Each structure stands twice: as C-alpha cells, then as structure tokens.
Amino acid sequence: MANGEEGEPGSAKDRWLLRARPHLVLDGLARAAAVTGAARGVVYLSDPAAGESVRRALAEHPPPLPVEVVETDHTYVAGEETAVVRRIDGGPALPTAKPPRPFERGVGGAPTLVSNVETLARIALTAARPDLRDDIARSTLVTLSGGPVAPVLTEVPYGMALRALADRHGNPGAAGALMGGLFGGLVDADALDLPLEPEALTAAGTALGCGAIHFLAPGRCPVTTAADAAAHLTAESARQCGVCVSGTAAVGKALYGLTAGTAGPDTADDLDRWARGLRGRGACGLLDAAAGIAGSLLRSFPHLVRSHLAAPCPVCADAAPADGRHRLTVAVPEVAGAPARARLHRPSPSPSPSPAPRPLPALKGTP
Ligand code: SF4
C-alpha cells in the first residue's frame, strides 16, 4: 500500500510526489508488490489533485497488478498504518490497537506492507538510476516553513546542519524549530547546530519524522507555538482512547494557560508529569506528540516556562486569536506542478560548510 496521507501540519512532500511524480510512486509500488508477492496495490491519499494525478498515471501506464486509489479525509491520524488498513477495509480512518501491526494482519486479515510514498519513490529511483544509489539513500525531502518567507519543499542530503537549512530558508537567527511536523517537538537555537540525521536527532530527543521543519522566528514566542501545537492535537484527537481525550486536552489547557497568563503554580510539574507519563498509552502517536510538545518545551525553553508563570507574556498576548482558540496553521508550499522542484536549485545566500541541497535527479516517467 502506498501511503500518501500526511497528517502532520506543514508537510507537503507526499502530496508533491503524488501530484508531480505519480509514475515513480507507482513503479515503486509495483516493485514492492513483486518482492512481497502482493496481488493488489492501493494508493491511499486525501488530496484530490494527487488522486487525479495518480488516476491519470494509472491510465497512461497500467501497472502489472491491479492498483486502486482509496481516498480518505485529511486528519492527523488518517495516515497512521492501522488507520490506513481500517479505511481500506471500508471502515473509518482511525487507528486500532497494536499488535497486530499491518505486516502481521492487515487488509482483509492478510499481512500488508504499508509504505510511505517517498520510500516507494526512492525504491523506483534507485532501480532506474543505480549509479545514484548512494545519493538517493543519503538524501531526504523536507518541507521548511516559519518566519517571513513562504514554505518550501526541498531535497537535502543527510548531514546538513539545521542552521544551514534555516539560513537558506530565509530564517537566520531562528530561535529554534518545531520538528517533524508536531512529532519531534520543539528544539532551541543551540539545537540548530545538529545535523539532519535521524540518529543524531533522536539522540538529541527530537525527530525528523515526516521531514516538516517549522523554524521559530525570533519575534515569536515558543510557548505560543507549543500551545498552538497542543490545541491542534486536541482538536485532531480521534477520541477513541480515554487517556488521549483527557491527556491531550490537559496538555493543551495548561499550555494555553501559560500563554494567557492564567497558569497555576503547578503547571510546570503537571506538564512534566504528563510528558513522562502519557507516552505510549494511546493507540497511535497523537498522544505521544502531545507529551512530546510538553516535554520539549520544558527541556528546550525552561526559562520561558518560568517567566510565563511569573507574569503574562506580551508576545503571547499579541499572538492570541480574538476568539481565544489556538489552532496551528502552517501554510504548505504550492505543490502543483514544478515550483517546489524549482526551489531546489535556489543558490545558498552564503557559503556554508554543510553539504549543499541537491536537486532531485531526473525521474523515470516524469510527466
Ligand atoms: S491516541 Fe488519541 S488520536 Fe490516537 S487512536 Fe487514541 S484517541 Fe485516537
């Protein structure tokens, strides 16, 4: 199954691949099916333009196995692997308890490979260009947002410093970043010296996840960003697990209290307890993300938590929406056609010791 449903705010890579490189994804799906012995394939998505593009590609070059396009609503949890299976089986796109995972019991009760579309595209690209095998394996698509410039989708080599990415994206002086959509939590400005390497980021307590990185502009308060993230997760909870319903909402309420100057004296202790205790207790990663937002704020910006407990923050007050509700709104790049790829060639404004972003190689079957 080609999973092209990306629920993390700020991520656009899967939509772009399905819209602009559908043949590559379908080729990767066929190759994965050949290896696993699968008799059918599914492309799972929520973006209507991506669906059109995939259907057109299927008509142009019918793959060697039946491939169906299954659409879902765009939600935070719809792309979780068990939600994918449930939706393809005709149910709601909501996670189920694990085990079993789909590779054990998936669609129709059969073992099922649920693979992200970027992985499938890289399989196909490696088969088409074995001479680029190392480059393909050592690079990743990232969606960069935040600050004064428009979001951009780009492909970068692993090892590049986060700070170089921030500089190239027009965010010099970023105060930190929200990593992996919401899943990697917040990091401070010092962490921007980390290399874009999954292992290094995990060791530092964060994660690259879907590759969406939202840089924190110097004039924006990270506490507001944390509150917005938690409010988004609260609204997106599938409300299946009691601990998620109460835990995510509690994190969101506490963080909102910090931004509004109404937090009680136990707020930091509460957030710390939830950050440690909520992980792994929901059926999916949403509750983990909420715990991660709380824990990463405490870890990366402890002085701000203290100052928000001592007095209302004027920056947060300025950022507060009139209706009192915080919702995360990270715009995504325009992914129709080629603009995202064109941005890959944007030259660096200044020399950097980090490896330069690499353009996507020419792709087999590119429209
Ligand atoms: S953890 Fe939350 S979002 Fe995930 S399945 Fe349970 S209730 Fe739904």
UniProtKB/TrEMBL annotation:
Disordered as annotated region, ranges: 90-109, 336-367
Presence of keyword Metal-binding: yes
Keyword line: 4Fe-4S, Iron, Iron-sulfur, Metal-binding
Biased composition (Pro residues): 348-360
Limits of the NADH-ubiquinone oxidoreductase 51kDa subunit FMN-binding domain: 2-124
Domain NADH-ubiquinone oxidoreductase 51kDa subunit iron-sulphur binding: 226-308
Annotated transmembrane regions: none
Keyword Iron-sulfur: yes
Pfam families in the cross-refs: Complex1_51K, NADH_4Fe-4S
Family: Belongs to the complex I 51 kDa subunit family.
Protein name as it appears in the record: NADH dehydrogenase
Species annotation: Streptomyces virginiae
